[in-house]
Amino acid sequence: MVKKSNTCSAEQLQIVRWTVRLGAVTAEALAEREGCTLSSARARLGAAARAGLLARTEVLARAPALYTVTPSGLRASGLRGFEPSRVSVAGAPHAIACAAVAATLERAYTDHYVMGERELRLEERECGAPLASADLGCGRDGAALLHRPDLVLWPDARQECLPVAVEVELTVKAPQRLLEIIRAWARCRCVAGTLYLVSAEVRRPLARAVERAQADERIVVVALAQLAGPDTPADAPAERTVPSAS
């Protein structure tokens, strides 16, 4: 039985709010974000779960456990407009990868703010305009169709600088669908550029789509394995750096 707590420490509040904004996090991602050991990160998330603030789910065997916010945790966070998220078996690998990428970007770009898709959707709904989403045209009802990135890398001076859209691609999309999205990002002017972090199987199809759309000046493709750090194989490709958000 989960022990409920009426108090939330400052450390737990920070973790809960991060989880709310991303939807789901892992101990591995928290360890990267905080620069602490994996055991310490697990202990912190475990304490938040015992307090009833987070829910721990082992969706996939031999994969990191995912932590999502509970209704109590959402109330404790003080953040409005969000709903508790659920992670499916199909969506778990992507959620794990997005948490890892978000943590790595936060550590690498300390003068930037990393926003998740959930938070972006909320902000765009509140302001009534795209902030970092690609325009895919109009639907049958005439409403605008937007493609939102998995993450957004915002510079501190948001009024003066454009953000970088970040896409995490683990599986291959249908060629026409992929080309439509690539073309939409190529013409999107509310972002400085788009960074694609991709699995090995996605890399070639995505590179072909970028070439076909003549979008190489607006889109950067990087192997997701490069985020692994010093253990990354020496022959892992490093194509370009993140587009400047300034």
Describe what this molecule looks like in 3D.
- The chain folds into two domains: 10-92, Arc Repressor Mutant, subunit A (Orthogonal Bundle), CATH 1.10.10; 109-231, Trna Endonuclease, Chain: A, domain 1, CATH 3.40.1350.
- The chain has a five-stranded mixed beta sheet, with helices on both faces. A two-stranded antiparallel ribbon has the order 1-2. The chain has a two-stranded antiparallel ribbon with strand order 4-5.
- The chain has 246 residues and is of the alpha/beta class.
- The chain is globular and about 50 Å long.
- It is built from eight helices and nine strands.
- Strand 4 and strand 5 form a beta hairpin.
Low-confidence stretches at least 5 residues in length (pLDDT < 50)?
1-6, 229-241
The portion of residues assigned to helices is 25-40%
Radius of gyration: 18 Å
Biggest beta-sheet profile: 5 strands, mixed
Strand share of the residues? 15-25%
> What would the principal axes of the Cα set say about the shape?
globular
- Integer tally of domains: 2
Total strands: the figure is 9
Instruction: Please identify, by name, the CATH architecture of the largest domain.
Output: 3-Layer(aba) Sandwich
- Strand line-up across the major sheet: 3-6-7-8-9
Structural class of the secondary structure composition?
alpha/beta
The N- and C-terminal alpha carbons lie at a distance of 49 Å
Succession of helices and strands: HHHEEHHEHEEEEHEHE
Oligomer: single chain
Q: Whole-number average pLDDT?
A: 88
CATH topology name of the largest domain, in short, is Trna Endonuclease, Chain: A, domain 1
- Counting DSSP H or I runs of 4 or more residues, the number of helices is 8
CATH class of the largest domain: Alpha Beta
